[in-house]
Structure prediction request, 112 residues.
Amino acid sequence: MTDDVQIRDLNQTYRGIDTPTNVLSFPMQEGEFSDLTPGLLGDVVISCETAEKEADEAGIELSERISQLLIHGILHLVGYDHERGDSDESAMEDKSLELMQILEPDKNLPIF
Prediction:
């Protein structure tokens, strides 16, 4: 959990995008050092500032938005990627909804 300043720095450093974002995932199952911690999926970083703005805009609780972002980040760590195309985006959204319905009492909570 961090703020917009720190997540912007991470986004710039690791993705070349000089703006804050809501969530970043850093997989540890890929790359040169993936064998160091084979049981660890990776890290998920969430900007509380951005999450709060998005929760307010959507009319949901901050905790609900953080749950959404955490699920989103973890799905990236296990191989889902909405940026690969429509079918991958749809699969990720379906899995996100499935997991949100387990975690959150509001069964009609939207995914965005």
User: Anything to note?
Assistant: The chain has one domain: 4-103. The domain at 4-103 is CATH 3.40.390.30 (Collagenase (Catalytic Domain)). The chain has a mean pLDDT of 88.
